[in-house]
Structures are given as structure tokens and as C-alpha cells.
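To start, an entry.
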Amino acid sequence: MSALGRVDLPPPRAERIKLSAVLEPETAVAPHPDIAHLAPLLGTWRGRGRGEYPTIEPFEYLEEVHFGHVGRPFLTYRQRTRAADGSRPMHSEAGYLRAISPDRVELILAHPTGITEICEGTLVTEDGELRLELDSTAIGLSSTAKSVTALGRSITVAGDTLEYSLRMAAVEQPLTHHLAATMQRAN
């Protein structure tokens, strides 16, 4: 309700559709030429992963990752996990993957736990396989976020399989393995 006592209505349907089309186009759009070499990542991936860290008990999880694009020189990225039995959500993150040259990329992410992450690294495409090796260059922390000082990611796509591992330095622990998953292309 507005200050004048009027009920504020959502924008007309046409405006909502325009906004959603900016986030993910409804019709197929060709990838921007600067990111065409990232096309093997495009789509939705689903699978299982396993996590461990010196300060917690090992765990398993289900994961879904989506790489999309809007015709601009970046990929959109959404990730979410659930407990291995599907009973509860665990983590999510969202952001963008940018190609800054044919062999260099940047991954910019926001986590709902009060962490932002900027990683940069290499991109290698060889024998039908795409490999990313990323290391954090900046970590932002809200006043309530746990202390994370470094992150590193390795991502490999071979055909319809995506595998990744994540390294983390947090809560006074050095950079060490934290997560690994194998996912299959869902679409």
C-alpha cells in the first residue's frame, strides 16, 4: 500500500515479460562472438557431489547448475544444492562468467551467506574438452559472513558430463579441497 492509501499493483504483464526476457531470453539467441567458445557450458546440469572440510563432517548432496546467456559477452550462472536425500536446500550461488580473452575467464558470484567471489583463470579447449582453472582475486564478506579468505575452482566439460572441484580457505584453515561433483547435461 502506498503512503496515500492506494494499493500498489505489480507492473503490467508486458513489463514483467520484458524484464524476464532480459534475464533469460524466451527465444533462442546466438551466443555473443566473444563467448562462443564457452558454448559447451550452456544448459542445465544435474548430479551428485560430496563435500568435506577439516571443520565439518563429510556430506553428500544433489546439485543443479544452469549456464545461460542473453546475447551479451557473458554467461549467466545459477547453482543450487539439496541434501542427498532431497529433504532440504543447502546452498546456492548466482553470477556471471566472462571471457576476457580466448584463454582467460572471470567468474563473478554472490552467495546468500554474505559472500561475494571474484575468480580469474585459464580456459583450455583441447580434444573436445573444456577446462577452467580459477582462483579468487577478491572475496567480499558481509559483517555476518564466515571468514573465507580464498577460493579456487576447477571445471571440466567433456561431452554431456560436467565435473568440478572447489577449494576453500576459511575459518583459519588453509586452502584445501571442499567440494567435488559430477553432473550430466539435463538439457
